[in-house]
Amino acid sequence: MRDLLLVTGITGHSGSFFLRELVKNQYPGQIRCIVRSTSDASELDGCPLKIDKRIGDLRDQEFLNRTLQGVETVLHIGSIFYSVNLVKAALANHVKRAILVHTTGIYSKHKSASAEYQTIESDIKTLSEKDPCKMGIVYLRPTMIFGRLQDKNISVFIRMIDKLRIFPVVGGGRSLIQPVNGRDLGKAYYQLLTKPEIMTGDYILSGEKPLATSGVFQMISGLLGKQTTFLSVPLTLSVLVARTIKSLTLGKIDLVEKVQRMGEDRSFSHDAAFRDFGYAPMPFAEGLRIEVEEYIRAKAARP
What we know:
Rossmann fold, 7-stranded parallel beta sheet, two-stranded parallel ribbon, alpha/beta
């Protein structure tokens, strides 16, 4: 186990579950956490572990260079768009291992940002190849993350299915997805952290098994107690409508990429993560039940 661990994004969705794993396992080492001044760090402040909280901005290279002094392991849960800055600081401070939580979005044939993701990782590779100490870099790639009402993925479908009697389904909902619960990601981060011998690697962190989007929608409807009518809309027509909306709003509402990806399989095997550090996600139905129940409680509590 490394003596000084630096974590970004610990107040976020999967980061907060990682913090709970650290507490549950009584992590003995020192943990330095970078948080934004606007973040809710109450859970971090009440944590019984050896926490060194640093307020700062991941865009500030000088701040990162100072903050990574003495760090041996980095777990970057924050945005992929700050990864290059963090790696620069890690290399300058002779960090031994950097664990970077990126995305399976890099594999999308539609996602416009996938090229940008590839550029980021290419830049990281270029930087690391110049490193005489050869810092270890491990990539973790979650699929669609869910598990809280703020997840911007499954929570969006829950709200829409709750409100709509007739629910449009792109391409009949035949495309496959493999959502991963933030709780499972928190466990995975900890499992990898306790495997210091894994110095390099590229691991997909997906949900238990592939699911047709139509099946996911039906599960949500059932848990909500709704009798939803699902209307299949051809992918080409859905994309046309999305492009029309984008044009009429002068680009302010751009759903084209999201609609295109609804027609794309987004299922990936996590066999390598299971083999190397025991990653075993919960059944989707279990995680979905937790989130729908949270939604129902929150809805009932509204004035």
